[in-house]
């Protein structure tokens, strides 16, 4: 190892930058960054195989700061090792438009692999990275040609270890023997509310992960670089099990008064304490944002990083020459798109047959399978229900990287793991699935997929009261609307088998964010597209499915309620001679993105008699039905009974829809007379 003096100086540089940045911003989390400076130093200068000049080099080690609040630690390390993150950006920590936001944001700051901050998510994202690494290694490596071989490092705090999602993810990692994981648990015995003795004093975290199949070590003092280094080497040497290194640290060390206090977690230390800490380190208390030249030179990783990448590129060259087809496959999956020809391969479903959209989804997935060799995913123990399986794709296990991942009943970790799979690169469209009602159990990860623009697919089946006998606990009611409330998430609820195929097309084509599919358990009629508009209309979010004459009334529906609206519309037109338009509206977000002219074409502003029909809460439909419209909706919890009974009891029958529509038309007519 390098000389002790320059090491200490480097570590103290990280500490002072952390203190100074938080002090300047007058907001942030200095304590943990200061305490863990030795760990960041050792990782970024010795163990991490990374290249600051090319933060997206495919075979780099991945580093995840699951304790995202301590991000100034990572920003300092990135700056000092030579990433394109100038000191100026550290001075603008947490300011509008800076590259140093209050928690790490992937896609914004070079070297940030995933967006963290909601505790536990990063832990699980890292498991996704390791699954991706294993999958790609098995698929692309050849004897004597290792082009995929990297580790995943993560730093986790007490909060990460307390959150249930990390335990779910740890269990998945242990089950699958993800030996490339090297995780650190910052055992500082402090959280915001004070000492962990009040909330986390009994549990032996190391023993828990050991019981889940992890290789667990303890380091008594994070400042003991030799012990830390030895533990990291041992963790790297352990390839069959994921590794956890429990590191004892003291928050805000070496600030004389702030050390070991909860206050040091999330508040600036104050000018006097910053000065005192600098004095304790032998630094000039008057100066801030100081990076000694020797430290800059010592920590710069440009050369080491370039050499590591060159070495990899040489291996890739030899591998490409020996296996040109494998290389072509590699290039293909790294475009993030399926192989050409996939659109033509999408199935078309004949009219007349009744098909649940979950079953249509299954057929679509099988058709896509040859075109998406690195598309993996699974269900939270509901494969037989969600029908999201690549038949013949094998099961992922400790000994074989199959395409179907048995996430077990762990929706939350599934969500975060799928996010990690997507973030890794090379894995085209990873997906996770469960009952729609349990989307709640994975919502934090879904939110992050939207916030971080991750190209993942969420497949939720059993999407309404159509679940039937399982009753209100299993019948989603508020879910469609609450998911529509998440910015940048596309929620698609196809109305029949052919819309389901187009929905999957939309999902595969989207590159800048997640697409969620809400699919039915119950069978739905496959609409006759020779007399109705083509299902391709789904790509514009909403489209006129059918109409009779100039519209006086518009019925808007999604998913399983479209055929109901159609039947009601036809009846209204036939019996009353009303001009009716039926609009299928599978994706609000796509419709909102259409030009105004198209939206006005589908929903002419002067047609005010509008009725929405959707088996979910009405909240939000006002946007489309307006003040003069109405909604056939479910503004209560469902009930346990056969699905047709539940629909009938809650007002989803042709007669009900006709009556509600007729009432709207009567009001319109009366208003017409009054004018
Ligand atoms: C899911 C979630 N809940 C709550 C928070 C708010 N929060 C941020 S850090 C933290 C706990 C701090 O303790 P610890 O995780 O041990 O971090 P340390 O202070 O030791 O760095 C909390 C509750 C969060 N970021 N994410
Ligand atoms: Mg802590």
Task: Provide structural commentary.
It is a single chain. It contains 28 helices and 20 strands. It is elongated and about 90 Å long. The longest helix is centred in the N-terminal third of the chain and has 22 residues, at 4-25. α1 packs across α3 (37-47), α1 (4-25) packs across α4 (71-81) and α23 crosses α28 (654-674). The strands form five sheets. Strands 10-9-11-12-14-13 form a six-stranded parallel beta sheet, sandwiched between helices. A five-stranded parallel beta sheet has the order 1-2-3-7-6, with helices on both faces. It has a five-stranded mixed beta sheet with strand order 16-18-17-19-20. By secondary structure, the chain is an alpha/beta fold. The termini are far apart. The mean pLDDT is 97. It folds into three domains: 4-305, Rossmann fold; 342-525, 3-Layer(aba) Sandwich (Rossmann fold), CATH 3.40.50; 538-674, Rossmann fold (3-Layer(aba) Sandwich), CATH 3.40.50. Bound molecules: thiamine diphosphate and magnesium ion. Residues 32, 67, 69-70, 117-119, 157-159, 163, 188, 190-192, 251, 265 line the site of thiamine diphosphate (TPP).
